Amino acid sequence: MQLLVWVFLILLGYGLWYVFRKNTESTDRQKDALTILLASVGVTAFIIGITSAEAAHYYFFMAWFAAAVLVAVMVDHMSEGQPVFAGLILTAVALFAVLNLKYTYYEAATTQDNLKEYQEVADYLTEAGIDYGYAEFWDAERICLITDGRVTMGHSYTMASLSGYWWLTSTKWYPPTLPTEMRTAYVVRTEMREAFEQQFPEGEAPILEYENEKLAVYVGDRNSVGNISCLSDSHSFGPELLVLSVFLLRNGGLQHQKSPDKRQYLEAYFHFPVGIRHRLRRR
Description:
By secondary structure, the chain is of the alpha/beta class. It has helices at 2-22, 28-50, 62-81, 83-110, 116-127, 137-147, 193-198, 229-232, 234-237, 239-250, 262-268, 274-282, and strands spanning 132-136, 152-156, 184-189, 207-211, 215-220. It has 12 helices and 5 strands.
C-alpha cells in the first residue's frame, strides 16, 4: 500500500509537468482549475506554517480534488495518442481506490473502538463532582460525548504545555471567562504523564487522582490553562514575540489603548507555561 502511494505521488508530479509544460493542448480552463485547487493546498500549508495548527492530513483534502482533475486531464489527452499509458493510469487509480476502501473505510467501519478507558474516566469525573476539565482534542471530545455534556472538557493542543486550543472551540471554556481558582481536572495520556508534571514548579502540580491503562486524571484547585491565546500559545509565535509583548506591556506600550482587558493582558505573563517563563527570564 505504501509503495502504491509513492507511485501515485510520482504520477501526480509527472501529471503537473505534463499539463503545464509538455502538453500544448491543455486549455486555460483546465490549467486555471488546477491552479486554484493547488493554490488552496498552498494556502493551507501557509496557515499551518504560521499558526499552531497541527499539520493533519485532513486539512489538505483539497489535494484529492486536484489529483482527480489532474488524472482526468491526463487520461483525456492521452486516450488517443497514448492509449496504453492512459489505461495504465486508470488501472493504477482503480487499484489505489480498491485498496483504500479496504485499508481505510472498511477498517473504519468495522473496528469497534474501545472506549472502556474513557468511560472509566467519565465515571470518575461524574462521581467526583468535577464539572470542568481539559484534555487533548479527541480525548476531550470522547469524554464530553460519554458524559452527555455533564462534564465540560476544554481542549488543549498538548497537555505538556496546557495551551488553549483556539480552533473551533469556545472561549467560555478558558480563563478569564472561567475563574482561575476552581477545581479542575486534567486528563492526560499515560505516556504524557512525565511531560505534564514537568511544566509545573516542584510541589505545585495537580494531584494524580485516577489512572487506568490509557489515561491519567490529575485534579487541582487552580485552572492552569493560559489566559490569553496570543500570549499563552507559545509554539504559535515563538519566544521572541513573547519577549516583545512583555516588553511593551511593562514599558507602557499599551498606555494609549483604552481597553477594558488591559489588566488581563498584563496578568497573562504570569500565566505562561512554566517552561516559557524560564525562557523569558533567560532572555
